[in-house]
Amino acid sequence: MAFPHRDSVPRAVDLLGVLLVPAPDPASVVRVLRDHGEPDVRLSAADVAELHAAAVELREVFAAPDVASAASVLNRLFAAYARPPRLTDHEEGYGWHLHADAADDGPWGPWLVTSSALGLASLLAERQDVPGGLCASPSCGKPFAHTGGGSPRRYCSPRCATRERVAAHRART
Ligand SMILES: [Zn+2]
Question: Which superfamily does CATH assign the domain made up of 4-172 to?
Answer without folding.
Answer: Jann2411-like domain (1.10.3300.10)
